[in-house]
Amino acid sequence: MSTPLGKLTSPVSLVVDAILVGAFAFVIFTLVKSHVPSNDPFWINLWGGLTTACMSSVFWLAIQMFRVVLKAQLLAKKK
After folding, report:
1. Helix 11-32, helix 41-78: angle, nearest 10
2. At a CB cut-off of 8 Å and minimum separation 6, what does 40 contact?
């Protein structure tokens, strides 16, 4: 099954996405770990990391959705 939009990702876009998601994860982890109700560093890092992983996954999904919608709009504007 072929997509009418053509190829949606490239190696460069994947690297850019990885950098954006990594930066987002770092910022979220620094914000979230202060809200973990524990004094033990293991639990703070565990729950902060799990929360960060979930939120970073949603951020990655949002980036991918934005890329597809933007490409579709640009192709529609050319026609």
Report:
1. 140
2. none
Token pair of 59 as six digits: 């951020």
Cβ(32)–Cβ(44) below 8 Å: no
Rounded Cα distance, 39 and 37, in Å: 7
Closest C-alpha to 5, from 67, 50, 47: 67
Residue 47 to residue 44: CA distance in whole angstroms: 6
pTM recorded for the entire structure: 0.82
One DSSP character per residue, 30-64 reads HHHGGGSS-S-HHHHHHHHHHHHHHHHHHHHHHHH
Query: What's the token pair of residue 29?
Result: 């982890």
Whether the predicted pLDDT of 77 surpasses 60: yes
Cα 1 to chain centroid, rounded: 26
